[in-house]
What does this fold into?
Amino acid sequence: MNKNGKELQNTGHALAIPKRTYKDSLRKLQVELVKLQRHFIECNDKILIILEGRDASGKDGTIKRIVQHLSPRETRVVALGKPSDRDRTSWYFQRYVPYLPAAQELVLFNRSWYNRAGVERVMGFCTEAEHEEFMGSVSNFENMLVRSGVKLLKYYLDISKGEQKKRLADRKSDPLKQWKVSPIDDEAIKHWKAYSLARNEMLARSHNPIAPWTLVRANDTRLARLNIIKDLLGRLHYSGKDKRLIRADRQIVFEYDTANLENCQLAK
It folds into this structure.
């Protein structure tokens, strides 16, 4: 029960929070995000945040809350569509390079070059050789970005199979979410196991101390959004930080470790 006597939803790993509490917490965190933006503009920082995850894992909603009150001049969201014929014959990372942050910019990738390790791998949109080349190159590419001054944060949002089914069904019935519906949605459920195996390999081979993965249990959208924002605020330096406000719940947001695949911390 909460202090008002209302029962809180049990999400399996933590108790959900009431809508009013969520909105109050979100507003306070968005004030912290504005502080962060003021700081990285003054200091010429370059910040890149990658959000990956299964279909319907909550990437869109999380990004929307992060950028909601930030200056659009210094904030960009990148969500690339299907690659062109030219893209398919170029160096794989070339397609993403023009969207990388310059000084004073925060860029959020709603899916990224890790498409090659996920949907392209599972759906056969790339060859095994192309996939292996990517996996052998991605850490070097990201290390170059970090050495050049880019502050890189990588999040993988994980949800259960049942939750994904529910969210994909909601998309089809909600007229305001029709833009999210795609033929790939049905394949996400059909190839659930293949996506799990591709995810496991991607995390194991691209996690490193310079560009680590942070995992998010995202079955509860409110808790996931709040804790992703808390985590990124905790990882980035800015003046006037309220450290008590940005303590993330490590049952929801936590750094990847090989043990995650063995102790059922990720959906199988």
Notes: DSSP finds nine helices and six strands in the chain. The first helix runs from residue 19 to 42.
